[in-house]
Specification:
GO molecular function: oxidoreductase activity
CATH class: Alpha Beta
CATH topology: Rossmann fold
Strand content: 15-25%
Pfam family, one: adh_short_C2
InterPro entries: KR_dom, NAD(P)-bd_dom_sf, Sc_DH/Rdtase_CS, SDR, SDR_fam
Strand order of the largest sheet: 1-4-3-2-5-6-7-8
Oligomer: single chain
Family: Belongs to the short-chain dehydrogenases/reductases (SDR) family.
Mean pLDDT: 95
GO biological process, one term: monocarboxylic acid metabolic process
Shape: globular
Distance between the termini: 41 Å
Low-confidence stretches: 1-7
């Protein structure tokens, strides 16, 4: 791990999968709010370093931590070294292949469940003793609108994301007595660097189903997560918050 001097902070906020995409924006926003960000990544050292450098350049606190969120020993060791964590943002994800139902395998399902059920469980169990001792904590699961849309050829991904929100609902009841809130944020299609090849026609087609007539930005998601990480969300738990311009409504 590498870190700058955190100084005064609200505590440590873990953001998984933060070397790029939404995770990078979430890490940046939480750091700006005064959290000492534990920026997790698994493979992209250059990307994680660049994100951390940007955060430090603004005078905020960040620690870079490389570990595989699906590996029990790596999670245990990294989070023990990190010390007490006040906020967890479960953002890490793996490949999301399109697989027709007649070809999808149980291993395809397990691959998705590893990121969206196993990883959040491993992380929760690692941070829970300190959260219980502190009497406060925030668990924020990054879900997806696809659980409501049911996108074709994404049965493994969609079912795993739905299971992730199942954890949110159960954990919110179990952990509420300890002052720990658990919520799910469900982004819609928020263009980031991996969508660089998307066409105007694809954006137009997506927007046909939204109430707001424009694509969302990563900051739209990061702002909602920042709210859920803050003391202002103290009476919000067990919820799904869709950040998709009204593509889905609950």
């Amino acid at each position: 791990m590498t870190a700058n001097t955190p100084g005064t902070s609200l505590g440590t906020a873990l953001v998984t999968g933060a070397s790029r995409g939404l995770g990078a924006f979430i890490a940046d926003r939480l750091a700006a709010d005064g959290w000492h960000v534990l920026l997790n990544y698994a493979h992209d050292t250059a990307g994680a370093t660049a994100v951390a450098d940007r955060i430090r350049a603004r005078g905020h606190a960040v620690t870079v931590s490389r570990f595989d969120v699906t590996d029990e020993e790596q999670v245990r060791r990294a989070l023990a070294e990190a010390g007490p964590i006040a906020v967890v943002v479960n953002n890490a994800t793996g490949p999301q292949p399109l697989i027709p139902v007649h070809e999808v395998t149980w291993d395809d399902h397990l691959n998705q469940l590893s990121f969206f059920v196993k990883a959040p469980l491993l992380i929760l169990q690692a941070v829970l003793p300190d959260m219980r001792a502190a009497g406060v904590g925030r668990i924020i699961n990054v879900g997806s609108e696809v659980t409501d849309l049911g996108n074709r050829e994404m049965s493994a991904y969609v079912s795993a994301k739905a299971a992730m929100h199942g954890l949110t609902r159960v954990w919110s009841r179990e952990l509420g007595p300890y002052g720990i809130t658990v919520n799910t944020v469900e982004p819609g299609w928020i263009p980031v660097e991996r969508h660089a090849g998307s066409t105007d026609e694809e954006f137009t087609e997506y927007l046909k189903g939204t109430a707001l007539p424009h694509m969302g930005k990563p900051a739209d998601v990061a702002d909602v997560i920042a709210f859920l990480a803050s003391a202002d969300s103290r009476y919000v738990t067990g919820q799904r918050l869709a950040v998709n311009g009204g593509k889905t409504m609950t």
